[in-house]
Amino acid sequence: MDAVGWVLLILGIVIVAGLLWWIARSARKRALHRDFGPEYDRTLARSGGRGEAEADLRDRRERVIDLDIRPLTRPDHDRFASEWTKVQAGFVDEPVSAVSDADRLIQQVMSKRGYPVDDFDRRAADISVEHPDVVENYRSAHSIAVKEGRSEGQANTEALGKAMVYYRSLFDDLLIVDDGAARRN
Fold it and tell me: CA-to-CA distance for 172 and 158, rounded, in angstroms?
């Protein structure tokens, strides 16, 4: 093979390798975007670039895989559902307390399911792996709860109502029950 042939062969190999790299990168991006939904875009907007955002999302997924996330037992599910009903009923008379109780109840459910609950940002990041469609609601609800909890008698009831709706969306997603179906198959 002459020099031109070698150059063309090497050029072809480089082009094929580049194309394969691009295809693999695109597939990873599509998979992350599919799995994380709007959380992908949020993470990308808050990061230093696509590579950093995607690495963050992959790290979250790996961290959550290493956790012992489990469904609730039927008695735990029923107890938490009953507590939620009480929290909602308390909203009429004490909206600030009800929102605070909703936040606390979410943390209890998360803890029972196996999520670490020490740090809010970590909780939100962990939740984004399996519940990407409601994690922004969780962030919004928490933000409202913190802001309105500090308002000392001047709380915005409409904002607190939104917080309750946002908390409810995550609460409903977290109430997964182990009904034994997996063991029967």
Answer: 21
Count, residues in the chain = 185
pLDDT at 182: 41
Letter for the amino acid at 175?
L
Give the Cα separation of 20 and 160 in Å (integer): 50
Mean pLDDT for the stretch of residues 19-25? 82
Give the position of tokens 């938490």: 80
With beta carbons less than 8 A apart as the criterion, state whether 150 and 182 touch. no
For residue 156, the SS3 value is coil
- Count of alpha carbons within 13 angstroms of residue 51, beta-carbon side: 0
Q: Helix crossing, 157-174 with 95-113: angle to 10°?
A: 20
Q: Are 144 and 95 in contact (CB under 8 A)?
A: no
Phi and psi torsions of 171, nearest 5°: -55, -45
User: Residue 177 burial by CB count (10 A; 0-12/13-18/19+): exposed, middle or buried?
Assistant: middle
Task: Write down the pTM of the prediction.
Answer: 0.77
3-state SS, residue 72:
strand
In the numeric block, which tokens belong to residue 102?
A: 């909703």
Q: How confident is the model at residue 78 (pLDDT cuts 50, 70, 90)?
A: very high
